[in-house]
């Protein structure tokens, strides 16, 4: 083959030898590569994947990718030790800890065969990374998104098994739903009777992302789906034991492709402040002015669940208006709060950290409430514990420039917001926020391709902005969470804020490291 003893990223090497891998018997190829210290291959459901490896006592051992540069690492957001992260999964509480799982690929800073990474926390802020919870290969090609629930003293994971049919065709697949369980919340065993739910006859191959909850003695599951009409929908199932599931309804479905999409990913269904809410990430929406500007969106529809288990609902509303927000998941905390997290990136995001051996992070946790038929988001109260110093308390004046720490919380109130309000910059990468009062829009602008995002705001008198800056990210809460914008901005030098309008301000320095690996 002419392969030298050099480490390659799996995807790169797989592409180089794809024609060969489809023809060579796995066992013979494995023998061939045992003479090399840095290369091995694994078989994943009839597909071959080459990964970096090292020789350990004559045995090739899979080696996780390493972070090579700290420049874009975050301070107080949950992120991987290395490798790729996307959707949050299994957000739950078990035996005194909050648990967060996430779509994870540890062998490259690219999407690959999905694992479930895992971390736990006492406060949803300080996270301890635990061993990988789910690994593909024995039952499925990838362990796609899902949820977690406590039952009979065990923590159960409900996840989508993603199965490739043709080794060289990523669109040739089928999906089903599976279980895994743990006594201690750390080590998980896949249920031997998997799968517990197969794709319905009136569905296409898109059938994923189960979210499970319990009411009384009944478990409910909402699943992302595409019907035979190739429109997105959410299916509702019930079970008494997590194993035997019965479909009860099409909870809701897209009214058309343009406005509500061809597939609804990561659905979540819950009751909040008198309303029933279906939160999801529809794919295929067309841009409409300031709305739906990303490749895929995340938002909600809400109304009332009828006796027929069908949601009588209003229009789809985006829940975040920034560039870098997708695939939400919520949980009900032990003290009764509905808390949401999301992937703090998107499929069309520029993820510059990939060149450093990692990619992706999760948002800070946000508590949800409904006011005036609109979901408001606010950072959980636990975020206040990150404050280490109060840097500014008073007026920030027009035309002045102020230094900012790279981990900061800004609370700004503008009496009569209009025009450019401020710019946060490292001298090269800018985030500018302005008020278009005539159009009723709050506008954010990055000096990147397709840098503008905007949303309607009800009132610009005493405009309140709460902004969480974390080295290479900003999460912006407008008027106590009426709107939010989530952004990855690859600042790599000291920050300043340049004021285009004066405001009352309270600025805090925040803790710089909350992840324990």
Question: How are the elements arranged and paired?
Answer:
Elements: H1 10-16, H2 18-21, H3 26-33, E1 39-44, E2 47-56, E3 59-62, E4 83-94, E5 97-105, E6 115-121, E7 127-134, E8 142-151, E9 154-164, E10 173-182, E11 189-190, E12 203-215, E13 218-227, E14 232-239, E15 245-253, H4 257-260, E16 263-272, E17 275-283, E18 299-305, E19 311-313, E20 317-318, E21 326-332, E22 338-343, E23 358-359, E24 366-371, E25 374-379, E26 387-396, E27 401-404, E28 407-416, E29 419-425, E30 430-436, E31 441-446, E32 452-456, E33 461-470, E34 473-478, E35 483-488, E36 495-499, E37 503-510, E38 515-516
Q: How many strand units?
A: 38
Helical stretch tally: 4
Proportion of beta-strand residues: over 45%
Question: What's the N-to-C terminus distance?
Answer: 38 Å
The portion of residues assigned to helices is under 10%
Structural class given helices, strands, pairing? Answer: mainly beta
The backbone outline, from C-alpha atoms, is globular
**Average pLDDT over all residues:** 90
Major beta-sheet overview: 6 strands, mixed
Oligomer: single chain
Cross-sheet strand order for the largest sheet = 23-4-5-6-7-38
């Amino acid at each position: 083959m002419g392969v030298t003893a050099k480490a390659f990223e799996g995807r790169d090497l797989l592409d180089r030898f794809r024609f060969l891998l489809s023809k060579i018997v796995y066992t013979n190829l494995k023998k061939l590569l045992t003479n090399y210290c840095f290369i091995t291959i694994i078989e994943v459901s009839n597909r071959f994947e080459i990964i970096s490896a090292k020789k350990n006592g004559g045995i090739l051992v899979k080696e996780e990718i390493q972070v090579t540069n700290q420049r874009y690492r975050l301070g107080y957001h949950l992120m991987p030790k290395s490798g790729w992260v996307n959707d949050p999964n299994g957000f739950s509480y078990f035996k005194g800890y909050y648990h967060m799982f996430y779509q994870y690929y540890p062998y490259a800073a690219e999407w690959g065969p999905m694992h479930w990474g895992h971390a736990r926390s006492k406060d949803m802020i300080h996270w301890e990374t635990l061993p990988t919870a789910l690994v593909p290969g024995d039952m499925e090609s990838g362990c796609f998104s899902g949820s977690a629930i406590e039952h009979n003293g065990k923590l159960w994971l409900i996840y989508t098994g993603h199965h490739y049919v043709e080794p060289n065709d990523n669109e040739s697949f089928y999906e089903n739903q599976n279980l895994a369980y743990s006594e201690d919340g750390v080590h998980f065993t896949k249920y031997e009777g998997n799968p517990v739910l197969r794709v319905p006859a009136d569905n296409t191959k898109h059938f994923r992302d189960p979210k499970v909850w319990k009411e009384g003695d009944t478990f409910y599951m909402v699943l992302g789906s595409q019907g035979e009409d190739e429109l997105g929908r959410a299916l509702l199932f019930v079970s008494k034991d997590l194993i035997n599931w019965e479909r009860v309804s099409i909870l809701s479905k897209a009214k058309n492709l343009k406005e509500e999409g061809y597939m609804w990913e990561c659905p979540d269904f819950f009751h909040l402040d008198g309303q029933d809410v279906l939160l999801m990430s529809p794919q295929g929406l067309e841009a409409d002015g300031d709305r739906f500007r990303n490749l895929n969106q995340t938002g909600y529809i809400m109304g009332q669940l009828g006796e027929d288990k069908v949601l009588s609902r209003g229009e789809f509303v985006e829940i975040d208006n920034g560039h870098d927000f997708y695939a939400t998941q919520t949980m009900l905390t032990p003290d009764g709060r509905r808390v949401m997290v999301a992937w703090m990136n998107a499929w069309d995001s520029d993820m510059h950290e990939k060149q450093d051996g990692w990619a992706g992070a999760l948002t800070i946790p946000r508590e949800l409430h409904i006011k005036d038929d609109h979901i408001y988001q606010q950072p959980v109260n636990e975020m206040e514990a990150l404050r280490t110093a109060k840097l500014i308390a008073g007026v920030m004046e027009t035309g002045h420039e102020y230094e900012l720490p790279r981990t900061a919380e800004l609370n700004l109130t503008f009496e009569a917001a209009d025009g450019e309000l401020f710019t946060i910059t490292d001298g090269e990468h800018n985030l500018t926020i302005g008020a278009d009062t005539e159009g009723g829009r709050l506008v954010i602008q990055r000096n990147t391709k397709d840098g503008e995002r905007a949303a309607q705001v009800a009132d610009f008198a005493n405009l309140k902005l709460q902004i969480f800056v974390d080295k290479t990210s900003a999460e912006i809460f407008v008027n106590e969470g009426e709107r939010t914008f989530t952004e990855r901005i690859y600042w790599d030098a000291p920050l300043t804020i340049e004021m285009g309008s004066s405001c009352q301000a309270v600025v805090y320095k925040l803790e710089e490291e909350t992840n324990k690996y």
